[in-house]
Every structure is written in C-alpha cells, then in structure tokens.
Amino acid sequence: MFDWLIIGGGIQGCTAAVYLLKQNKVSIENLAIIDPNEQPLSMWRHCTSIIEMPYLRSPSIHHLAPAHFDLEKFAKSSKGRPYASFYKPYDRPGLQLFNTHCEHLFEETRLNKSWLQGRVVQLKKDKTSWKVILKDGQELESKNVILAIGLSEHPFWPEWAVTAKENEASISHIFDRTQQVTETAKSIAIIGGGISAAHAAIKWSQHLPGNTVQISRHSLRVHQFDSDPGWLGPKLMRNFQTVSSYDKRREMIRKARHRGSMPLDIKAKIGKQIKSGALSFLQDEVMEVQANSSLNKITLQSGQQIKADHILLATGFHQSPPGIEWLNSTIQDRKLQCAACGYPILSTSLQWDEGLYAIGALSELEIGPVARNISGARRGIEKILESI
Ligand SMILES: Cc1cc2nc3c(=O)[nH]c(=O)nc-3n(C[C@H](O)[C@H](O)[C@H](O)COP(=O)(O)OP(=O)(O)OC[C@H]3O[C@@H](n4cnc5c(N)ncnc54)[C@H](O)[C@@H]3O)c2cc1C
Predict the structure, then answer these.
(1) pLDDT tens digits, residue range 7-27?
(2) How far is the CA of 12 from the centre of ligand 1 (A)?
(3) At 222, is the secondary structure helix, strand, or coil?
(4) Residue 227: CB within 6 Å of ligand 1?
(5) Are 366 and 350 in contact (CB under 8 A)?
(6) 376 lines ligand 1 (CB under 6 A)
(7) Domains and their CATH numbers in the chain
(8) Sign of the four-CA dihedral 65, 177, 204, 217
(9) 60: Cβ below 6 Å to ligand 1?
(10) 220: DSSP letter
C-alpha cells in the first residue's frame, strides 16, 4: 500500500512528486508514479525537442521545485552553469537548462525509485484506499491518488486532415510520436498559427529554405504569455473563484487564453525567415487535400493551390478531458461531479473524492487558465499540500 500514487509522470505529476518528497510529506518507498513511458517527462521532452524550442515561454520562477529561485540558484551552481541561459525579458530559461534542472531535482529526490512504467485503466475505491489497475493486470493500492494526466497524448486532427490521411496523403501531427516528416520530403506545409507552429516553421525553413510554407487562419498574434499574468494571483483569480457557474468559468478560461499566440521574439524570427525567402506565410484555411504517392495538393479557402511533399499539423490538442474514457466507471461508481464540459468539479483543495485529487488540465475549473502550465502545476500541488 502506497501513501501517494500519481497517475501521469509529465510536468504536472513530477512537480507533485518533487513537492511531496522535498517537503517530507511522503517517503520515496511510499510514493508511486505510474506512467507508460520509460522515463519522467517523456511527453514534455518529445513535444519541446521535436520543434527545437530553444527557450521556455514561461519565466525562470516557473519550474518543478517548491523554492521560487531554485532554477536560478541551480544555474549558478557548477552543475547548472554549463547550461545557464536565459532570454530577457522575464528571464525565460533555456530548454536545456530547464531540463537539466529537472534531472537534478529527480536525482536529489531519488524520484526514479518511485517510477512504475504502466498505463492505468481503472480506478476503484476500497474502504480506506484506492485500487489502481494497470493495463498489464497489475493492481496497486494507495491511500491517496493524484490524477496528473495531460493532453499531449491527444493531438488534434481537423476533419480534412483525417480524410487526407485516409486517402494516404503524407501527413502527420507535429506531436505524434509514431509518425514524423518523411526523410525524403523536399517541401513542407505547416498548418497552424500558434507558438508550436511558429517554432516548427522556423525549424523547417532552416532545413528546407524556400520550400516551407506556413498556413494559418489568422495573422501572427503577439502575446508574451499564453494568458494575462494576472491569472497567476488574486488579481484575476479572486473573481474567478467567486463564480459558481462552471459554464461561466469555462467561458472565462476560453476568453483568457491567448490561443494561437507567441512572444514578440518568435514573431521576429518568423519575420526574418519570411524576409530571407526561406519561409512563405499564407493567411488562409485548408479546404481539401488531394494526394498521390509523392505529392499533396492543398486547396485553400481563397482558391489558391499549394503543393507539398508533406503536411505537418501544428493544430494543438483535443479539448476533451484527458483520461475520461477509463475514468468514466469511477465517475459513475463514486458519483463524481463533472461540469457540462466534462471536466471534474473539484473542491478548493482539488479533491474530487476522499483521497482522490486532480491537477493540470483536469483541475482547470478550479485553478483557472494557467492550470495546464508549470505555474498551474505548482499552484495545484500547493493547494493539495495546504489541505493535508
Ligand atoms: C511545445 C510545448 C511547449 C510548452 N512550453 C511551456 C512553457 O514554456 N511554460 C509552461 O508553463 N508551459 C508550457 N507548455 C504547457 C505545459 O506545461 C506542458 O504541456 C506540460 O508538458 C503539460 O504537462 P502534463 O503533465 O499535464 O501533461 P503530459 O506531458 O501529457 O504528461 C502526462 C503524462 O501522463 C501519462 N498518462 C496519460 N494517461 C495515463 C494513464 N492512463 N496511466 C498512466 N499514465 C498516463 C502520459 O503518457 C504522460 O506521460 C508547453 C507545452 C508544449 C506542448
């Protein structure tokens, strides 16, 4: 029997684990982190490395450790100094520095000792504990469970793209781990107008200069962060928490998110690639793709036609609650509350049921627009810890 079991070992689950261990709320022997990947942060590493993201979008105080300046302190240590790199303003850490800091925290807390590779398929309440059933049939028991399953396993495919794939077009989603851009591709069309599409457009226009096109429904939007920093504290959260309608909270979250935006420096890099002729940018929408074995013919809403060897979707993730398929039986057995959007209705300490908590995407109706981010992970586990 474990004291704490975390389902999902991404940014959210690992932040929770580091806090629990560093604040002596659990010993390593009494903690389990269940994740289908071999190593912590696998999805994070995949999504950020595939687009060659050099710096995080968030500032240096957003990391996995409880102490605010842990990352900055690490950057000055002998272990961190070789990777020390920040981008002004807001001291956004370099990805390598951020990842090395994570590894340092995992070593410090011996987090790997609680790592259990597996996929949870069912969760059942016993009298005083939770039974966690894995795909391979293993059963584990824990007094407390934290759901920390993110969205990165669910890339979003627009309908036209599903049809194109069925018709054997050369097409993939940027965050798909099974299929990537074919090595023989000499031209590429990137679909999307957000920060991931922008990073991908910079990367591919360097690899295939003059043969990379980015197609976005909107012009490039500039926002330093993906939501107003006021959402990080009481300035905007106080009002959010007084709203009792979860439909209204969902609408507030939708309006607060600067979807499809990027910081100014990324827009400037895109501008440079366009100016040099390495990248073309089209504000338009894909209507249809006609494919043969070697070329995709993309018809846009404007009537223009584009040819590309490969289509790369940078269209984000599904918006439905992650894990909901296997959580459904728990929701029904335990009569757990969900809002009309399908997301959990949690207590202010993120409790969904006795000893069952959710952080990250599943906590956004309580944590607000930053729930999915690193700052949301910190706030989420802090709320849980305050209540125990
Ligand atoms: C390219 C990119 C850049 C980003 N940059 C920033 C940034 O600079 N700053 C910031 O604050 N945020 C950033 N974000 C947003 C956010 O912080 C990340 O998406 C973060 O990785 C989300 O973490 P997570 O733990 O919720 O999800 P995930 O990374 O999806 O991790 C969840 C884990 O749960 C596992 N899992 C799923 N189902 C099960 C199951 N049934 N049983 C066991 N395990 C399961 C998954 O395999 C996965 O390993 C970025 C996101 C992306 C995509």
Answers:
(1) 999 999 999 999 999 999 999
(2) 7
(3) strand
(4) no
(5) yes
(6) no
(7) 2-153+318-387 (3.50.50.60), 159-223+258-313 (3.50.50.60)
(8) negative
(9) no
(10) P
For residues 81 and 68, give the distance between their C-alpha atoms in angstroms, rounded to a whole number: 18
- Of 48, 153, 265, 375, which is best to mutate to test ligand 1, by the most ligand atoms within 8 angstroms of its C-beta? 153
Token reading at 327:
């959580």
State the residue for tokens 């202010």: 348
Any idea what DSSP says for residue 228?
Answer: -
On whether the pTM is more than 0.85, the answer is yes
Report the nearest-CA residue for atom 34 of ligand 1. Answer: 8
Integer angstrom CA distances of residue 386 from 4, 25, 40, 350: 15, 11, 25, 11
Q: What is the pLDDT of residues 292-314, one digit of tens each?
A: 767 899 999 999 999 999 999 99
- 74-100: b or e for each residue (b if 16 or more CB lie within 10 Å)? bbeeeebeebbebbeebebbbbebbbb
Does the CB atom of residue 171 touch ligand 1 within 6 A? Answer: no
